């Protein structure tokens, strides 16, 4: 048995059919920036929208270098997949600022008849840029933990004529106030496509699709595209300085037949999510049989923040 096989079976719990096991020491493995659709006449412009998505930074392979310790490396090997933001943020209740989000996506499809369950697992870490020491009376003004608004992972699924987004986000901070709770993707029943698109009539994106970009946000941390996970408060590891990375485990399993969540795990906590339905929207053209896994991270301040993914397993049965 190879080292990769030992690692796969010892630190992951994949379903029967492993579709991809991505160790980023070997390259990007098909993960790329989630970019706008440059499709419109006459100069390949983007479709009509109020949310600018052409300023999201590209994903990269990173050895996680920091000013004091030098090269941190990954959980295994040297390189991890790094998502970053630009140093720009809007207040939580406003539409996302240009460049405040970083995304990574891998474009995949179903391949085995009768496959029902779909799962994504990863080891991750997150931190903010240690650029300046903030003022004030806080005990650690250079830590910047509250600069990270949220991060998450999930799937963009389209099968049998319906599209659905499923995923979890860790809402870490809202306008500098620490929150530290998990929320799952599900849009509110009483909103329209226009509400979803921040009041724009005719945006290409429909309610329930791309909730990291779209959906109204409210001062208490609520969101038109996310619901609180019951008993979802969790204190994750954010070490004493921004250059100390602690690798943590995260897993999501969904039922593509019933169109609902199955369970979610972070570190050693598991939430039973059976019975929670996913959004369903009409299918988009030419992408039936889609199971794209994805990650994202968002900044809460005018400071860059980062999400590191050591390795990812996508499996199905």
Key features of this structure:
single chain, 317 residues, mainly beta, eight-stranded antiparallel sheet
Question: What does this protein look like?
Answer:
The protein is mainly beta and 317 residues long. The protein has one domain (3-316). It has helices spanning 3-11, 193-196, and strands spanning 17-23, 60-62, 65-66, 70-71, 80-84, 101-105, 117-128, 148-159, 162-174, 177-185, 226-233, 248-255, 260-266, 269-272, 281-282, 290-299, 305-316. The strands form three sheets. Strands 1, 2, 5, 7, 12, 13, 14 and 17 form an eight-stranded antiparallel sheet that branches. Strands 6, 8, 9, 10, 11, 15 and 16 form a seven-stranded antiparallel sheet that branches. The longest helix is centred in the N-terminal third of the chain and has 9 residues, at 3-11. It starts with a helix and ends with a strand. The relative contact order is 0.26. The mean pLDDT is 94.
Average pLDDT reading: 94
Number of domains: 1
Range of helix content: under 10%
How many strand elements? 17
Please summarize the sheet with the most strands.
8 strands, antiparallel
Give the termini distance in whole angstroms.
23 Å
> What form results from the Cα inertia axes?
globular
User: Radius of gyration, Cα only, in angstroms?
Assistant: 19 Å
Structure classification: mainly beta
Q: What is the count of helical runs?
A: 2
Q: Provide the low-confidence segments as ranges.
A: none
The succession of helices and strands, N to C, reads: HEEEEEEEEEEHEEEEEEE
What is the strand content? 35-45%
Short note summarizing the structure:
The chain is mainly β and 317 residues long. The protein has helices spanning 3-11, 193-196; strands at residues 17-23, 60-62, 65-66, 70-71, 80-84, 101-105, 117-128, 148-159, 162-174, 177-185, 226-233, 248-255, 260-266, 269-272, 281-282, 290-299, 305-316.
